[in-house]
Amino acid sequence: MSTVRLFDDNSYLTEFTATVTSCRPWENGFAVTLDRTAFCPEGGGQKGDSGILGDATVIHTVEDDDILHLTDRRLVVGQTIKGRIDWDRRWYRMQHHSGEHVLSGLVTAQYGFHNVGFHLGDELVTIDYDGVLSREQLDALECEANAVICQNRAITASYPSPEELSTLPYRSKKEIDGALRIVVVEGIDICACCAPHVGHTGEIGILKITDMKHYKGGVRLQMVCGNTAVRDYQQKQALTSHITTALSTVQEKGIAAFDAHIAAVDAATYENDRLLLAVAEELSAAYAAAETTCVVVSALTGDAARHLARSVAERTHRTCVVLNAVDSGYRYTMYCEHDNFTELVKAANAALQGKGGGRPPFASGAYQSTLGDIRRWFIENS
After folding, report:
1. Domains delineated in the chain
2. What is the pLDDT of residue 360?
3. pLDDT, tens digit, 9 for 90 and up, residues 37-65
4. Distances (CA, A) of 211 to 2, 123, 246, 247
5. With a threshold of 0.70, does the pTM exceed it?
6. Is the Cβ–Cβ distance between 116 and 220 less than 8 Å?
7. What is the C-alpha separation between 377 and 51, in angstroms, rounded?
8. End-to-end CA distance of the chain, in Å?
């Protein structure tokens, strides 16, 4: 006898009593079946319920011919026990799954696109549609979905007869054998679905599309609902306030102020890079005056250090290493055009407690030796 699915009739049932009908080892724990359960198994894009059965923790719930409660300890067959689901996690999933039905119903009705992928994770919810939607279309759909939420429309679930089912224009991502559970969002959506849902759209709270990207010829959306959407808004409001305060502007002018700030930073960075390269060129002339120079100590880093190393090497026809002092030694930028580039880099690392590498003619990394030891090694070996 299969388990009575209490969650089909009452998504809000959090506690129940049941009789253990079987218990067998399963991976790192046990798989328990009951005569009745409020634990919904994994399916329809979301994970199974977790919670408590007697003195055992239900880590996950799956379906394999029957509903299996995966527990951390053995339960006695024939025992009557009390079960309690993790309501916070169930409520989160109910809000998001019902929100997905509202949004997908609108997408199908207006654009004829289908939900071909749905993942309801504990932190990330994604929906895949088989057609492309613009940002403007998604903004409009989001507004309409929230209007439907405010209308507090009924959400019902039932198992129609085959005759009734043949007359219903329901959505389904795959063919399903046997009895089909149909979830109806009043006037918005009819969909085959096995998951618990809220009773009215108002309980979804709010729906926000947080991201969109093109995916397999359609789009993949990220979505948050209810309390999760409120927390997401709070985080973004804090970020917006921080940025606008730093830029001495107001939210309405925040984007323009941010763009202007980035443009100014880019211009300053470009000018700084130009000046650093000019400094490197001047330094290279001074260092190259001593034709035996192969080790240069400088505060320059990045492109400027590479330019300095190259310029000195080309002027002296020797390998040049630019050193930048750090707490644990020296960061190095090496320029070497010799055929033994790889061997030289490895030998220097071995002799000078170094790490790093690169491709000819540049190498970079760090040495932990003293400046004197580094100078002597390169004078003798380059």
Report:
1. 4-85 (2.40.30.130), 91-241 (3.30.980.10), 281-381 (3.10.310.40)
2. 92
3. 999 999 878 999 999 999 999 999 999 88
4. 41, 14, 26, 26
5. yes
6. no
7. 66
8. 83
